[in-house]
Write a structure and sequence with these properties.
The chain has 223 residues and is an alpha+beta fold. Helix content is 53%, strand content 23%. The radius of gyration is 21 Å and the shape is elongated. The chain starts with 8 loop residues before the first helix and ends in a 13-residue tail after the last helix.
Length: 223
Amino acid sequence: MTGMNMMNGGYAMIVLCGFGVMSAVITALMYGARGRRVEALLAHGGDFIAEWQVPQSMWQEIMRKQFEEERGYKQMLLKIVWFFCILFAVGFPLYDPEDGWWVTVVMVVMMAITGLLAVIMPRRRFQRLCATDAWVRVGRKCVMLGDELHAWTIPGSWLSAVNLCEEDGLNWLQVHYSFITRAGIQDETVFLPVPESARAMAENAAVSLQTIIKPGQEKRWSM
């Protein structure tokens, strides 16, 4: 009815809309499950094995360190996404010089959107964490950084490393877990600030968490 053939704007719009709908459904299901898990954990006292409060100055420094880590990871993922976008943007016009430019336009738009998100999302998370209560809670099934939950009990996820790190007089418990997405395995690293008063608790929590890491799922840190 619109006069668009499958290699013209119609094809590009179908792909773009389908991708958007699928991403929205997956996001809603995943965050809905995480929300219910938070409520269940807090309703039963959280099943936490350790928790401590962090001085605000230390909290800000560790959050900035985590922001730099996340930003670097997002930039790496962005380069992978842009590689395929450029591949399709160049390849389709070569294959179909008349209508392939529609795909090029969609790829350019996608590059602009993903590039903007890669800059905005880590900064928004950093600002939100800086404004939340400076509390750390550690459980055998999850950790909470302020009001942010990180769990590895969802099917297809696992804990892969826990290390107590020290650098420039700062201590933090570095927790690494992984989960399977439609794009493959995604890794997540959480920095939990550890003041000197909580060091013994953090060491005990690290030992406890290391016992639940399954053989073959360990991650080697390069600190």
